[in-house]
């Protein structure tokens, strides 16, 4: 061969899609192809396949396997002369290395592709049964099965059949194969066969007439006694036959296996008997079955064995399937199923998962099946086991928008085609898109993408997955809007009853009210209504993910009514990715955040991800600066404090919204895993906000009453949780007040001024208004409620020197200046440090007194009727237990351990561990308990809108607390068990460290 000719052939091969032109040239020069190597027809046909290199290699192997020159010439002559065979055979060889292997082992099976009659284009079960009829053992059954599979693949790759028809043919071939396998099992045990009636019910994709190339074939077996046979004996015989049939299909032989037969969808799964009588099946489904088991029965279809018995089985169970939506736990089950189970998919594979990944096949199948369960009980036209047929019926009945259904149909067909071609290559069960460039190229070309197969495939795959992801939720919700809004011509309206049923199925307890809200929001032809119709399908899905969807929708209507005419509101929700989902989470998570928002709906701007400040907490400095400026602009103290309280309300909303979003997670950001970080963020934000509010209030009161200078220097000292930077949403501000007369000012005048400041601050911060009040609690002052509200620094010094009790030293552990004269606050801290960190620690008498006080508090202060084990503050292992334990360590060792000189519980606990005062395990147990109890209190306030130390008793409120803490629907009991377990472990540590047990 001349170099020039070689170069010409080489170029031609590249032009026809070969990637290894040198290897292709060598194969074309082989003796087997010598007669046709220059035939342009062959090269054109090879170039039209998914992988020309693979097709040519497979062809040479097939020619080499022919029994002699005559057979080889017959194959080549037919190949060149008959275009149907050429397209079919080379198409299969270019798409499936596994079927090329089969042809090399069985070189005459290519003849199955020669016939091209109309009756061969769409064979059914009968045709496949004829194709398997001569198989007399498991090995020959495999060979015959692959021969039939060869013809299905040929029609598929040539485009003779579409993906739905191919899936149906694969299901029909599986039906014929199950019948042949059962016949082999019966011929091996005729006495067992005579003793029983055995029906094989196909489930899953086989039952739905939409099987993959390689898939488990899901089945359920039903058995009955034949004639007068004993039932127990008959069931044993039926079980032997069923087991043998499964082995015939599943076991590996010299010809490989066919596919696994999976009977785990049967009652009780792998723990239940393989074969049951019809009455036993019926009893199980009537009493024990879960919602997903009825969902599985949507696809039940008798395929082999006693078909009359199979028909009886379907007829008996069908009424139960269509009543599943009326079951007590249907809503909870549906909400569990709606959340995609992707935890078991390795992180490296989730983006390649065609079936289970986001926007995958399971999304479409689940959505269709759920809508069938909800609406199929009243509309028999929806009762198809085939996904695409059911989707078409849903669209025809108005249960799904026609345009949405068409786009979903297109996406599903594309994704199933990808799945088919991926499996066809090696005939292996997989749903992962390959990573290798050559595999992607072959896959893209097999789907008709020829210009840049890899890039085009990736683009089309992502586009279709995106369509599925977006429409998955809209499929449920858009028709609900169509039911209350004007429809496009030709669209069928979802009936009011059907809309009600769907809302109930999705967790709405008052569907009539929900429909009224939807009508108010989405009706009309205004631009506002049009945007709402775009937003609501997704928002309704997010509401349904919460513990109280009805509240979420109602709150959204209230916010929309308040801001509907504001041009930026709907634009924010439509255009800023995070805003709409954040709003949905916040509005449906409980009462506190929506109540704060309703008082100033413009705060919804904080939920965006633009320049509105977002949900990041603001520090003490910026907050104080803003509040002082607002108070300074006011005409009087009341207006100044009103402005300060307005800022506080907005910032409380920011903190609550951020806490909810971080606790729930979003579609783009998982929930915060570090529970302690969530607690610390809330505690710091609310404490900083309270301090800034008090500073602004103090400034407003002083300016209004005395002008620039108060007759006395004045400081506010934070105590308790406030001083510890651990305030929750419902916490009062525990403080003590200290003053010192200005030089030359009479002490009585100074004391009067200080008392007036305190009285006015407390009054103004509690005036009824749209803003939540800030309660000031000064009961931790010397002498408690009996003592003066304000003392001078000298008075504190005298009192503490003479009268101070050990509980007051303990309370002072958390004292920290928060507002007013900084220098006076610093001197107050210098005064109390020797009390709270006593030299050489506490004496034994003081330790016994603290223990006695703690024991008395436990017995006297727990509310009547409260469950101590679930009381987060005073119960065993609760906040009080952990805090008193930590504070005892501070009192005893703070004089030698600088790290213990902090007002913060968690920081002191960490310092105690670092100092070796307790072990890492003990510190971890106490920290976990304190964080969990604090989270529960925050959750109760967020959910109920009022403070509480115990778990709610109302089921929806309890579920909402559970969602905040990371528990899914139906797991409130697990949450309570986890709390008790955590508190019990903490109490054991407290008994040892605090009580010395």
Any overview of this molecule?
With 997 residues, the protein is mainly alpha-helical. Helices cover 61% and strands 5% of the residues. The chain contains 44 helices and ten strands. The strands form two sheets. Strands 1, 2, 3, 4 and 5 form a five-stranded mixed beta sheet that branches. Helix 19 runs parallel beside helix 23 (453-482). It is elongated and about 125 Å long. The model is unreliable at 1-5 (pLDDT under 50).
What are the salient characteristics of this protein?
disordered N terminus, single chain, 997 residues, 10 strands, 44 helices, elongated, mainly alpha, five-stranded mixed sheet
Q: What is the makeup of the main sheet?
A: 5 strands, mixed
Whole-number radius of gyration?
A: 38 Å
Global structural class: mainly alpha
Low-confidence sequence ranges: 1-5
Q: What global shape is seen?
A: elongated
As an assembly, this protein is: single chain
The helix content, as a percent range, equals 55-70%
Count the helices. How many?
44
Mean pLDDT: 91
* Terminal CA distance: 98 Å
Q: What share of residues are in beta strands?
A: 5-15%
Tell me the total number of β-strands. 10
């Amino acid at each position: 061969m001349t170099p020039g000719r070689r170069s010409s052939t080489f170029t031609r091969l590249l032009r026809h899609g070969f990637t290894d032109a040198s290897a292709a040239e060598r194969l074309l020069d082989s003796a087997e192809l010598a007669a046709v190597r220059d035939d342009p027809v062959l090269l054109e046909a090879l170039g039209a396949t998914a992988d020309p290199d693979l097709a040519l290699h497979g062809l040479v192997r097939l020619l080499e396997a022919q029994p002699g020159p005559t057979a080889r010439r017959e194959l080549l002559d037919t190949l060149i002369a008959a275009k149907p065979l050429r397209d079919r055979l080379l198409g299969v060889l270019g798409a499936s290395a596994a079927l090329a292997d089969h042809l090399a082992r069985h070189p005459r099976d290519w003849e199955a592709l020669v016939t091209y009659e109309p009756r061969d284009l769409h064979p059914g079960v009968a045709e496949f049964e004829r194709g398997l009829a001569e198989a007399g053992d498991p090995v020959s059954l495999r060979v015959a099965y692959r021969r039939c599979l060869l013809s299905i693949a040929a029609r598929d790759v040539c485009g003779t059949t579409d993906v739905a028809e191919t899936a149906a043919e694969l299901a029909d071939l599986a039906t014929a194969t199950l019948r042949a396998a059962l016949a082999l099992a019966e011929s091996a045990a005729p006495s067992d066969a005579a003793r029983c009636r055995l029906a094989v019910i196909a489930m899953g994709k086989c039952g739905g007439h939409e099987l993959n190339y390689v898939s488990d074939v899901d089945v359920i077996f039903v058995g009955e006694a034949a004639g007068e046979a004993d039932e127990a004996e008959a069931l044993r015989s039926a079980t032997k036959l069923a087991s043998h049939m499964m082995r015939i299909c599943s076991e590996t032989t010299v010809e490989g296996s066919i596919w696994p037969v999976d009977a785990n969808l049967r009652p009780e799964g792998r723990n239940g008997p393989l074969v049951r009588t019809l009455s036993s099946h019926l009893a199980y489904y009537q009493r024990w079955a879960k919602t997903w088991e009825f969902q599985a029965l949507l696809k039940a279809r008798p395929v082999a064995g006693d078909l009359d018995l199979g028909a009886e089985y379907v007829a008996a169970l069908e009424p139960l399937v269509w009543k599943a939506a009326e079951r007590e736990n249907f809503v909870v089950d549906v909400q569990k199923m709606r959340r995609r189970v992707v935890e078991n998919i390795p992180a490296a594979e989730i983006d390649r998962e065609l079936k289970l990944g986001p926007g995958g096949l399971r999304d479409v199948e689940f959505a269709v099946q759920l809508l069938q369960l909800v609406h199929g009980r009243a509309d028999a036209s929806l009762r198809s086991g085939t996904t695409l047929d059911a989707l078409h019926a849903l669209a025809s009945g108005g249960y799904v928008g026609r345009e949405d259904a068409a786009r979903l149909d297109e996406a599903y067909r594309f994704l199933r085609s990808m799945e088919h071609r991926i499996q066809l290559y090696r005939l292996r069960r997989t749903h992962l898109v390959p990573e290798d460039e050559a595999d992607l190229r072959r896959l893209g070309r097999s789907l008709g993408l020829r210009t840049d197969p890899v890039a085009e495939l990736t683009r089309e795959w992502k586009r279709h997955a995106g369509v599925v992801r977006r429409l998955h939720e809209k499929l449920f919700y858009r028709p609900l809007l169509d039911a209350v809004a004007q429809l496009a011509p030709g669209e069928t309206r979802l009936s009011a009853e059907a809309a009600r049923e769907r809302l109930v199925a999705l967790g709405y307890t008052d569907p009539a009210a929900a429909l009224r809200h939807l009508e108010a929001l989405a009706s009309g032809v205004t631009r506002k209504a049009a945007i709402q119709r775009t937003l609501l399908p997704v928002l309704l899905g997010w509401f349904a993910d919460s513990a109280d969807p009805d509240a979420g929708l109602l709150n959204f209507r209230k916010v929309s009514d308040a801001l509907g005419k504001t041009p930026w509101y709907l634009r924010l929700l439509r255009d800023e990715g995070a805003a709409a989902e954040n709003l949905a989470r916040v509005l449906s998570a409980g009462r506190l955040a929506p109540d704060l928002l309703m008082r100033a709906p413009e705060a919804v701007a904080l939920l965006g991800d633009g320049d509105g400040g977002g949900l990041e907490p603001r520090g003490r400095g910026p907050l104080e600066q803003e509040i002082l400026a607002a108070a300074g602009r006011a005409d009087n103290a009341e207006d100044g404090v009103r402005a300060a309280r307005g800022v506080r309300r907005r910032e409380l909303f920011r903190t609550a919204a951020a806490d909810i979003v971080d606790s729930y997670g979003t579609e783009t950001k998982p929930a915060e895993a570090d529970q302690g970080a969530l607690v610390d963020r809330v505690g710091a934000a609310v404490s900083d906000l309270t301090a800034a509010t008090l500073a602004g209030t103090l400034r407003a009161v002083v300016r209004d009453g005395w002008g620039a200078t108060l007759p006395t220097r004045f400081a506010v000292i934070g105590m308790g949780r406030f001083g510890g930077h651990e305030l929750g949403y419902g916490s009062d501000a525990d403080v003590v007040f200290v003053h010192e007369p200005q030089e030359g000012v009479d002490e009585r005048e100074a004391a009067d001024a200080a008392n007036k400041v305190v009285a006015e601050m407390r009054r103004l911060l509690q005036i009824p208004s749209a803003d939540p009040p800030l309660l000031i609690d000064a009961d931790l002052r010397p002498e408690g409620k009996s003592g003066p509200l304000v003392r001078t620094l000298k008075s504190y010094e005298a009192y503490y020197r003479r009268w101070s009790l050990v509980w007051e030293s303990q309370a002072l552990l958390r004292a920290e200046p928060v507002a007013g004269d900084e220098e006076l606050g610093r001197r107050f801290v210098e005064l109390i440090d020797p009390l709270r960190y006593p030299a050489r620690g506490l004496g034994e008498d003081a330790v016994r007194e603290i223990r006695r006080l703690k024991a008395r508090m436990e017995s006297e202060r727990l509310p009547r009727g409260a469950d101590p084990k679930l009381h987060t503050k005073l119960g065993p292992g609760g906040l009080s237990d952990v805090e008193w334990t930590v504070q005892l360590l501070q009192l005893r060792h703070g004089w030698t351990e600088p790290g213990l000189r902090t007002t913060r519980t968690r920081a002191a606990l960490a310092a105690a561990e670092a100092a070796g005062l307790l072990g890492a395990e003990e510190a971890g147990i106490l920290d976990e308990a304190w964080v969990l109890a604090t989270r529960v209190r925050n959750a109760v306030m967020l959910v109920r809108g009022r403070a509480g130390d115990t778990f709610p008793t109302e089921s929806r409120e309890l579920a909402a607390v559970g969602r905040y803490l990371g528990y899914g629907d139906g797991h409130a009991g697990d949450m309570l068990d986890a709390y008790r377990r955590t508190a019990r472990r903490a109490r054991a540590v407290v008994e040892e460290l605090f009580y010395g047990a």
